[in-house]
Write a structure and sequence with these properties.
The chain has 171 residues and is an alpha+beta fold. The protein folds into two domains: 74 residues, no CATH class; 84 residues, 2-Layer Sandwich (Alpha-Beta Plaits), CATH 3.30.70. The chain has four helices and four strands.
Length: 171
């Protein structure tokens, strides 16, 4: 036996309270109430759910597009580095990093440049603050072309657009 789906509370409220007020209204007012009872829930659905979801969809699509462009740029840089080949660094790692930093004009942004202890290979810890993002990427690309590789890197955005803080360990 299938039990019918009903709302006895709402039916009771409709019968006892709302129906009598509705029937007292003029024909024109009843039509207006019926029209509003259809339009108001429809507007709530459209403006409360559909439009915000659509805005979020467009925002996510834009974000995805931006991330895909960044990934493509990173892929191109990696391909470019591979094509240039890897050279063995001339001189100490500290000297090579300092020379490349001056060449790439990021030396003023380097706040700390010190050897890192541990491990079997020499490592260097580089910290940059308030550095332009594009110059920083070019700097690390130049280091890679000199045979110095990034072991660990941490990028932090700043309130200024295109300016980052970077901490990196290279070897």
């Amino acid at each position: 036996m299938v039990k019918s789906f009903s709302f006895p509370f709402f039916h009771d409220v409709w019968q006892r309270h709302v129906l009598s007020y509705y029937q007292q209204l003029a024909q024109r007012e009843q039509g207006l109430v019926l029209f509003a009872s259809v339009i108001v829930p429809l507007m709530v659905l459209i403006f409360g759910m559909i439009l915000p979801l659509n805005d979020e969809l467009h925002r996510k699509a834009t974000l995805l597009s931006d991330l895909q462009k960044q990934a493509q740029e990173a892929e191109q840089l990696a391909h470019q580095i591979l094509q240039q080949g890897v050279k063995k660094p001339r001189g100490s790692m500290m000297t090579v990093v300092d020379q490349e930093a001056r060449t790439q004009k990021v030396r003023p942004f380097i706040t700390s440049l010190r050897p890192q202890l541990g491990g079997d290979k020499a490592r260097l810890w580089i910290q940059m603050k308030q550095a332009p993002y594009t110059d920083t990427v070019k700097f690390y690309q130049a280091l890679a072309s000199q045979g110095i590789h990034i072991v660990q890197i941490k990028w932090q955005k700043t309130p200024k657009l295109g300016i980052v803080n970077v901490q990196a360990v290279v070897q």
